[in-house]
Amino acid sequence: DAGVIQSPRHEVTEMGQEVTLRCKPISGHNSLFWYRQTMMRGLELLIYFNNNVPIDDSGMPEDRFSAKMPNASFSTLKIQPSEPRDSAVYFCASSKSWGGELFFGEGSRLTVL
Amino acid sequence: EDKVVQSPLSLVVHEGDTVTLNCSYEVTNFRSLLWYKQEKKAPTFLFMLTSSGIEKKSGRLSSILDKKELFSILNITATQTGDSAIYLCAVEAGNNAGNMLTFGGGTRLMVKP
After folding, report:
1. For B72-94, how does the pLDDT look when each residue is reduced to its tens digit (9 = 90+)?
2. What is the dihedral of CA A77, A110, B3, B5, to 10 degrees?
3. How far does the CA of residue B36 sit from the closest CA of chain A (Å)?
4. Residue B36 pLDDT > 80, yes or no?
């Protein structure tokens, strides 16, 4: 299996620009998670989908962040407009429904200037 | 609010030393505790613990959970430079509506030759 696939791997953008991060979960996995990792705050859960439905988005920092999962094999995390404090590594992870083991993608490193 | 705390924050040892990493938690509806190793990229799964007192072992790594005292330890014996990484503890908690992982801040381990 190819594992969880994220793109882009690196993104450098200017404040105010829209950023879209993409994720393809492992085939057959029903749960998808978006995490953000920074030195200051560690790994934080942003949003969690189960069977393509958002279950908990309480970790989404503010309205500038939105996430969608239009089908079982694709999800996006969008930041509009981006700010320098959004600079972080964004991880997508997937798991079988109620199983605890997460499989992480390689991450998307975002730098907002 | 669910909370996972790891200690120490960082650790520097020499090859051959034994290290013990700690993870304590306060969560509602505990389901499992997981350990991950993060080198340069995505976290990779090490162990999942659900029952108290049962040691999980993989080579030089072992882990045990105490559900009464709400903590887990990860032991690494005969450390090698390849063990240098951030070790993340995560707790899965939730109810029938969904399970989520809450991560600790991680312990950064550096093993010197």
Report:
1. 999 999 999 999 999 999 988 87
2. 150
3. 10
4. yes
| Cα A113 → chain centroid | 20
The CA distance from B113 to B110, in Å, is 10
Contact yes or no for B68/B52 (Cβ under 8 A):
yes
Task: Say whether A56 and B48 touch across the interface (CB within 8 A).
Answer: no
Percent of chain A residues past pLDDT 70, beyond the cut: 96
Residue A38 CB: number of other CB atoms within 10 A? Answer: 13
Q: Alpha-carbon Rg of chain B, whole angstroms?
A: 14
- Nearest C-alpha in B relative to A96: B99
Query: What are the backbone angles phi and psi of residue A59, rounded to the nearest 5°?
Result: -85, -5
Cβ–Cβ contact B98 with A under 8 A? yes
Which pLDDT band holds residue A44 (cuts at 50, 70, 90)? confident
Q: Do B100 and A45 touch (CB under 8 A)?
A: yes
Token digits of residue B100: 């989520």
Q: Using CB atoms, pick whichever of B32, B44, B106 lies closest to residue A100.
A: B32
Six token digits for residue B106: 């991680």
